[in-house]
Amino acid sequence: xxxxxxxxxxxxxxxxxxxxxxxxxxxxxxxxxxxxxxxxxxxxxxxxxxxxxxxxxxxxxxxxxxxxxxxxxxxxxxxxxxxxxxxxxxxxxxxxxxxxxxxxxxxxxxxxxxxxxxxxxxxxxxxxxxxxxxxxxxxxxxxxxxxxxxxxxxxxxxxxxxxxxxxxxxxxxxxxxxxxxxxxxxxxxxxxxxxxxxxxxxxxxxxxxxxxxxxxxxxxxxxxxxxxxxxxxxxxxxxxxxxxxxxxxxxxxxxxxxxxxxxxxxxxxxxxxxxxxxxxxxxxxxxxxxxxxxxxxxxxxxxxxxxxxxxxxxxxxxxxxxxxxxxxxxxxxxxxxxxxxxxxxxxxxxxxxxxxxxxxxxxxxxxxxxxxxxx
Length: 375
Fold this sequence. Notes:
It is built from 3 helices and 27 strands. It has 375 residues and is mostly beta strands. A hairpin with a 4-residue loop joins strand 24 (319-328) and strand 25. The termini are far apart. Keywords: Disulfide bond, Glycoprotein, Immunoglobulin domain, Repeat, Secreted, Signal. One of its GO terms (molecular function) is platelet-derived growth factor receptor activity.
């Protein structure tokens, strides 16, 4: 009996050894190649944070969203490229998303109230339509959303759209000009532009002097060519004066632009340089008197005059005449002289006092005065 019991214990022990041999403890098993890559749980590991600096800095800047779409064939829409080339005669339709949209387009379309152009505001978008397009319509078309507070609106810089469109027309390499001869004033303190723009994006354009006949290189330092503006004189001076024209070549054809007279203007930019002078500062009863207000300024800057005079409150009848002309002051320098003359006939006591003239241009205004006494 004891023998059988002993034998049974030996069999049980052997079976247990077989089981433990098939499933050895994990910390006892030999390491395989590539194992133990997991770091101990008690070791501090700095978590990796995704880099958001660039994204945050980008988000801090207002995102510009293009809101312009172009109507294509069969009712399709697509965002227009920065520059487009369309055939003259095509209908142009642009839409910009928003319930208050402002528009900009070639200025002459607005100046002459061209009936071919239509601008409408719909509930969700603004719409610009141009029919029977011509080469003269070549230029920048842009739109922007408006942020309004009551009747006061400002441009939403984050919602804009623009495209420069070349309207190609047979026989027209240059955007047509309303005249055959134009004047460009050269001011020493700002750029001057010879506005010979083309209707074909691939056209090669050169600038030429009429006399002495030669090509004027656009070297990128003094003169550059901008397809949206023309030839730009970066730092104009008196040596640039003369008659010039442009020449364009495209598709084996060439064309000459209108001529441009370049005149150097010696008067610096700023409010009007104004003077006032009375024909006499002491006037007898019944005499006539005139007061002259004179401005010397830039050739292409218009001046407006306003008067205040003693008999104004009593509705004293006076005559006011405004004129201007260009004068040359040596070395080819050109100046615009603008004048306003007030005439008072049959001088009376109420006409004695201060005569005040205010001259105004786009850069400011100047007020001058003189006295006229009754003698």
